[in-house]
Amino acid sequence: MGRARASVAHWLTFGVVLAGGLVVVSVLVFTILTAFKAPGEAFGSGASWLPKAFQWGNVLAPFKIAPFDKYFLNSAIVGVAVTILNVLTCTAAGYSFSKCRYPGRNVAFTIVLGTLMVPLEILYVPLYKIVYDLGWVNSFAGLIVPAATSAFGIFLMKQAIDTVPDELLEAARIDGAGEFRTLVAIVAPIVVGPMSALALLVFMTNWDSYFWPLLVSDESHRTLPVGLAAMQSNNLADTGVPVILMAAILAVIPTVLLFLSLQRRFVEGINMTAGIR
Amino acid sequence: MTRVLSIRGPVSLSRRSIAGVVTGIALAAPALSLFGLFAIYPIVQVFVLSLFDYNLTSPPHFVGFANFAYLSTDSRFLESFVQTVIYAVGSYVPAMALALALAHALRGRMAGMGLVRLLYFLPLAMSWVAVSIIWRVVLHPTGMLNATLGLDVNWLTSSDTARWGLVLMTIWKETAFFLILFLAGLAAIPTALYEAARIDGAGAWQRFRHLTWPLLRPITVVCTITATLRGFQSFTPQAVLTHGSFGTEVVNLFVYKTAFEHARMGRASAVAVLMFVLLVGLAAIQLRAFRRVD
Question: Is residue B82 part of a domain?
Fold first, then answer.
C-alpha cells in the first residue's frame, strides 16, 4: 500500500518535471519553427507557431547576408587552437605540480589556485592594453594566446594526476625514461578522461566567448558570437527575424551536438570544476 | 619520500634530481608564463591604470585618485552598480533555488529520467549571443511569451520591464548549470542515511533540513561563489539585447563603453578595481562563512 502511494508520488513528480522540461525546450521549438517562416510572417496578429509554408531556403540565408561561413571558420580555428593549447599546457603544468619536485613549486601552485576566484572578465581593460602593446589586436594571436591556459585546467589536471600511483612513475624512471617520456607514455593515457573533459569544457566556453573577441577582432577575424551579434544589430526589423534566428540555430549546432554526444563527460567536467574550493 | 630514496646513492640521485628539477620547471613554464602575462600582470596593471588618465594612444597621465573621485559622484556608474546587483540577485537566486528543487525531482534512476534531464541541460550548450537573439523573439511584444500567456508587455523596450526580461532569460539559461552541480551533490549522499532517517520517523522536510541541506553545503558554496562571479560579470545579454538601454546598463557594459567607446581606459580601470575588490571580497566571505559552519 505504501509502495503504491510512493509510486504514485514518483509518477506525479515525473509528470511535473517532464512538463517543466518541455516548457524549457518549447523556446527552442518555437525558435526553430520561426526560423523557417517567410519574412514578415514571424509576428503580427494571429501569428501561429507553424510557418504557413516551410521556407527551406532560410537555411542558406545567413550565408548570403553576411560572411557567416567565415565566422564559423574563425570560431573553429580559435576554438580548436585554444582547446589544444589548454590541454597541453594544463596537463604539463598539472604533472609538474603533482609529480616533480623543485623549489618554488608550491608557491607557484598556490598563486594559480588563488586566481581561481579572480573575476577575469572585469580585467579586460588592462588585458586589452597588454595585447595592444604586443600588437595583437585584430589578429588570431590576440584571440588565442591570452586564452591558451587556465587556472581551472591546471588545477583539474593536477587533481587527476595526483591519483596516478608514484610506483608506476618510479618503474618508468628506473627503466630510464625521463620526466617528459613518463608524462607522455605513462601518465597521459591514464588521465585521458579528465583531459577530454577539459577539452570539451574549454571548447564550449570558447565557442560562447563574446566579450573578449568583440574587443580584439576586426571584420576578418570575427568569431561566430561577434558576427552573430553584428548580424542581429543590422537586422533589427521584424522581417529579418527568421533569418537571424536561423543564424543563431546554425551557430549552436556544433556545441549542442558535442554536448548530446559527450553529455556524461560534460557533466563530469562541470562537477570537477566544483571540486575546486 | 625523497629522503628515503637518497639511500640509493647521493651522486646518481643528485644528477637525476637536477635533470628532474629542470624538466619539472620546463613543464610548468608554458602555463606559468602565459598565466603570468595574461592573468597576474593584468591584475597589477588594473591597479596602476586606475591612477592614470589614459586613452591608449597618448602616454598615460598620472591623476592620483581622481578617477575614483569622479566615479563616486557619477550617477551613471552608481546606477549601473544597482542594476548589476538587481540582475545578479534577481537571476541567480531563483536559478539556484529552482536547480535545488529540480535536482531532488530529477535525481531518480527511473527510466526516462535521463532524457528529461537532457531537456533542462540543453540551454547550457548554447552560446549567450545565440540565446540572447532567440530571446529577443521570445520577448517581442507579439512574441512567444506574450502570445502564450495573453500578456501585453513591451519586455525589452520599457525601463519597467527590460531588466526582468533579461532575468527570465538568464534563469532559463543558467538553472541547468547549478542543476548539474546539485545532482552530483545529491548523488554523493549515501542513501543509507535517508533510510536511517526514515526509520527514525523523519518527514520529507526534516530529511531535507537536517540531512540534505548540511551535506550539500560544500556544493552550495561553490554554487553561490560561481553565481556571484557570473552575475556580477554579466555582459553579453545586456550588450546584445538592449545595449544597456531601458535600465539594463550593468557594470561590465559601463566599463566597456567607458573604455572602448569613450577611450577612458583609466576611469574604466578604476571601475574594474572596485569590482575586483568587491568580488574577491565576496568570494572570501563566502568561503569563510562556509568554513566556520563546517
Answer: yes
User: Quick check: is B56 in a domain?
Assistant: no
Position of cell 520599457? B158
Q: Are A190 and A178 in contact (CB under 8 A)?
A: no
Q: How does pLDDT run across A6-29, given as a tens digit for each residue?
A: 778 888 888 999 999 999 999 999
- State whether B88 and B155 are in the same domain: yes
Q: What is the pLDDT of residues B104-132, one digit of tens each?
A: 888 877 778 888 999 999 999 999 999 99
CB-closest option in B31, B121, B143 to A92: B31
Nearest chain A CA: its distance from B89 CA (Å): 17
Cα B7 from Cα A118, distance rounded (Å): 44
Is the domain of B106 the same as that of B240? yes
Q: What is the ipTM metric for this complex?
A: 0.91
Within 8 A by CB and 6+ apart from A272, the residues are: A156, A159, A194, A197
Q: CA A229, A233, A239: angle at the middle one, nearest 5?
A: 115
B37 domain residue, yes or no: yes
Pick the CATH number of A61-274 from 2.120.10.30, 1.10.3720.10, 3.40.50.10860, 2.60.40.10: 1.10.3720.10
Same domain, B139 and B25: no
Q: Are residues B87 and B190 in the same domain?
A: yes
Q: Give residue B8's domain range.
A: 2-49
Q: From the first residue on, what is the mean pLDDT of each consecutive set of 10 residues in chain B (294 residues)? A: 42 62 91 93 94 91 95 95 97 96 85 88 94 92 84 86 94 94 88 86 86 88 91 94 91 95 94 94 85 61
Question: Is residue B60 in a domain?
Answer: no
Residues B242 and B172 in one domain: yes
Task: Look at B27 and A17 and tell me if their CB atoms are within 8 Å.
Answer: no
Contact A274 B24 (CB under 8 A): no
Stretches where chain A sits below pLDDT 50 are 1, 277
Taking CA atoms, B206 is separated from B200, B203, B213, B221, in Å, by: 11, 5, 10, 21
The answer for A 175-234 residues in CB contact with B (under 8 A) is 178-180, 183, 204, 207-208, 210-211, 214-215, 224-225, 228-229, 232
